[in-house]
Amino acid sequence: MRILIVGNGGREHALLWKLHRDHPGAHFFATRPNGGMLDLARPVEIAPTDVEALAGWAAARAIDLTVVGPEAPLAMGLADRLRKAGLPVFGPSAAAVRIESSKSYAKDLMRSAGVPTADYRTFSDLAACETYIREQGAPIVVKASGLAAGKGAVVCITVDEALDAARAMLGDLSFGEAGREVVVEEFMEGEELSVFGVTDGTDVVLLLASQDHKRVGEGDTGPNTGGMGAYAPVTIATPSLLQEARDTVFLPTLRALEADGSPFQGLLYAGLMVTPQGLKVVEFNGRFGDPETQVVLPMLESSLLDLLVASAEGRGLGTLPAPRWRDGAALTTVVASGGYPGSYEKGKAMDLSTVPAGEDTLVFHAGTTREGDRLVTSGGRVVAVTGRGASLEEAARRSREGAGAVRFEGSFYRNDIGWRELARQS
Fold first, then answer.
1. What is the pTM of this model?
2. How far apart are the C-alpha atoms of 287 and 271, rounded to whole Å?
């Protein structure tokens, strides 16, 4: 079997790691793989966003399954091109992935489908947006409608912060085209969950719930990042709550997308808020989350490949046995470059030799590359160190010990990933 992984971050390394364990005899390929993926996959020197070249490459080599990791190639139509060529692909069409690439589209779809979410208004005119913010007051949330690498949502405690965020997006175009339209939402009180659903367009299989930590600083302080760590499972994600998510969020959304002429095949990710009024959707993504993938997949004992193939083929998902999960917990800590999520330097020499080796300490590379026999940094989020253990406390200890052993100039990480859950359990 020939499997192509599109993307080269921590999420893609985790996908490659798990699929390799599911089918070690397969031939794996990856687009411009990072320094950790090179041991498991042959490099394809095509950018993940060069969708025409990638589709042609996959067709010429009769790739049996393409797994698209990042959102940008999906929004650019990579899955459409592959399906048109008759190639199985795990990932939604460009039309379906509008549920991530356009927050205004997603909010309108949820409203029409009766999916619970925060009240909102959409703006492309700065003056109208400012008037609305003043009328609503704070706290309030200002979001760039387009793709912004996980950093386009600003939770504003004061009206002045919200006005600054709106001016940065609509006036200064700080998020480029992604911020030409903004969504202003009511602030929701509660605790967030990340829930992945593998779907063939009709049926959906929910994976283990996890919790991401977006803020750069300990205690959830500072600006939003792409994610500084995650853990799974989450005790508030009870079986009844996940059934509620399936019934009130996933299935109505899938039906609405199909009715809109955009059936969704791939990974539907729901960012959920557990509020006193019940579950509400914070956002949807059309692909696996990062760094949540780095804790969900290490807990999955059964085959991920079988799920992805059934989704890609658009049939058979409901006939597969329910996913089997390890006992215990997993927690991942992201080690980042100094200055992230702002400007940071690349090319810092790395040393991973003192990171504990073993089945329960896993290092997933994100912003790394190899220069000869040297491993160097190439991004803001450099590696995610996942610990597994019989308890979350044990998993956290292994993850933090591993993160502390990662060596490169300017490195930093949060030492409190999982703090809510650890407080509950203590």
1. 0.94
2. 12
Asked if residues 38 and 60 have their Cβ atoms less than 8 Å apart, the reply is no
Of 197, 233, 224, the residue nearest 425 (C-alpha) = 233
Topology annotation, domain 190-319:
D-amino Acid Aminotransferase; Chain A, domain 1 (3.30.470)
**Beta strand segments in 228-290, E:** 229-232, 266-275, 278-285
Provide the pairing of β-strand 65-68 with 89-90: parallel
User: What is the mean predicted confidence (pLDDT) over 154-171?
Assistant: 92
Return left, alpha or beta for 326; rule: phi > 0 is left, psi -120 to 50 is alpha, else beta: beta
What CATH code would you report for 329-425?
3.90.600.10
Q: How far apart are CA 33 and CA 193, in angstroms?
A: 29
Specify the CATH superfamily of domain 125-180: ATP-grasp fold, A domain (3.30.1490.20)
User: Which three-class secondary structure state does DSSP give residue 279?
Assistant: strand
pLDDT at 148: 74
- Residue 160: other Cβ atoms inside 10 A: 11
Under a CB-based contact definition with an 8 Å cutoff, are residues 290 and 227 in contact?
Answer: yes
Tokens of 78: 């990579």
What lies within 8 Å, CB to CB, of 108 at 6+ separation is none
Domain boundaries, the chain: 2-93, 125-180, 190-319, 329-425
pLDDT digits (tens, 9 = 90+) for 263-291: 999 999 999 999 998 999 999 999 999 99
Alpha carbon separation from 341 to 197, 309, 338 (Å, rounded): 28, 35, 9
Burial group, residue 42, by CB count within 10 angstroms (0-12, 13-18, 19+): exposed
Residue 149 has pLDDT above 90, yes or no: no
Summarised one tens digit per residue, pLDDT across range 327-373 is 999 999 999 999 999 999 999 999 999 999 889 999 999 999 999 99
Q: CATH assignment of 2-93, given 3.40.50.620, 3.40.50.20, 3.40.190.10, 3.30.470.20?
A: 3.40.50.20
Does an H or E element contain 271, and which? strand 266-275
